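Run log, item B.
One chain of 426 residues. Sequence copied directly from the ordering sheet:
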Amino acid sequence: MSLVPTPLNLLVVAATEAERGELAADVAAAGLTPIGACECSTLVRVIPELEPDAVLLRVAQPDAMLFEMLSAWLPQASCPLAAFVERSNAEQTARAVQLGVPAWVVGRYAPQRLAAVVQLAQARWQHEAGLRAQLDGVRRQLDERKWVERAKGVLMAAREIDEDEAYRLLRSAAMQRQARMGDVSRTVIDGSNWAEAVNRAGQLRMLSQRLVRTFAQRLAKVGVRRAAELQDESLQRARENIARLEVLVPAALHHPALTSVVEAWRSLQSVIEGRLHEDAVLQANACAELLLETAERLTRALEVAGGRRVLHVVNLSGRQRMLAQRVAKEAILSVANDAAPSAQLTSAVREFEAALGELEQAPLSSELIRSSLAAARDEWMRMMRSVAASGPGADRVACAVASDALVQIFDRLTEVYQRSLEALMG
C-alpha cells in the first residue's frame, strides 16, 4: 500500500514566479497535483487556506528568514515539508533537522526524484507523528499518575483513610462519571484548593474583628494577658493566611479582590502593632471594617468562581467565626466607651442566629456536624447571657471566652465541610 495518498495535493514554494511555475509543472509531471504556489514569506498564511497534503520547497541557499519561517510553522505544521536545497552548509542542515524537516535534499535539483522525495517526506512525517503520539501518551500517563498521587494524598489527609481506600474512592468516582482517573484527581485537587481558599479568606474576616477586640480588651483592662497572647497569635495567623492565599487565589482574582485585602490588612497591622491608646482603638476599628469588607468580597468571589454549592456552606460556617468575634468586639467597645449596645452588635447577633439555623437545616450533615452545631448553639447561648448582663469587665471576659470557644468550634466545623467529599469531589 502506497504511503502517498491519491490524489496528493502539493503547495509549491519558490523565490520567483518562474521557479514556482517550473516546480508546479514538475509536480504535475510526477503525477501529483499542484494546488497553489507562493513564496516563503507568505507560506504560513497560505497553508491554512489551501490545506495541502504536503509542501514542496525549492531554494538555492537557505537564509535566516527561511529558518525563521520554518521555526514559526513546523511546530504546529499540519503536513510534511520536502525541501530541495542547492547549497546548505553543515550548520544549516543541522538546523533543518533540529526543526524537524522530514526531507532536506541538498544538491542540484532533479525533477525525476521529486515523487520519491515527497514519498520520503510523507513516510518520515507519519513515522514521527506516531512517535509524537506515543510520547504524548507517555506524558499523559505520567501526568495522570502525578495527579492521582496528589489526589490520594489529599483524600488520605482529609478523610483519614489509607492509600488503598483513597484509590478506591478515585476509581469509583471515575467509573461513575465515565471519566479518566486523572480528570477526577484534578477535580479533587481543585476542590481542595477552592475550599481551602474560601476558608482562609473567611478567617481574615474573623481576625479583623478579633484583633480589634483584643486591642480594646487591653485598653479596657479586660483579661489583658490572654488578650495580648491572642492578639499576637491572630497577627501571625493573618500573615500565614495572606501568604497562602497569594498561592491559592487564581490570577484573575488577584486584582482587585486579593490586592485590596492585602492593603487593608497592612493598614490594620500597622495600627495594632503600634502604641495602644483610645484613638488607636478607633483607628484600628476603622481599618478592621475595611479588611472585613474586602475579605467578604474576596470570599464571595472565591465561592462563586469555585462553582460548587458546598462552598456556600464552607463560607457560611466560616463566617460564624467573624460574627462571634464581632459581637464580642462590640460588647467590649460599649464598655470601653461607656455606651449602649451598638446597631452593629444587634445586626451581628441576628446574622449569627440566622446562619446557625441554616447550617442546622443544611443537607450536608453527619453525626460530627450535628454534635458540633449543638455545641455551638450551647456556647452561643452562654455568650448571649454574658452580653445581656450589665456590670463591669468580668462579664465581658466571659463574653470574650465564649466568642473564642465559638471560633474553635467553627474552625473545626468549617474544616469538616472543607474536607468533605462533596467539597473535594464535587
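Observations after the first pass:
- The chain has a mean pLDDT of 93.
- Residues 114-159 form the longest helix (46 residues).
Flagged for discussion on Thursday.
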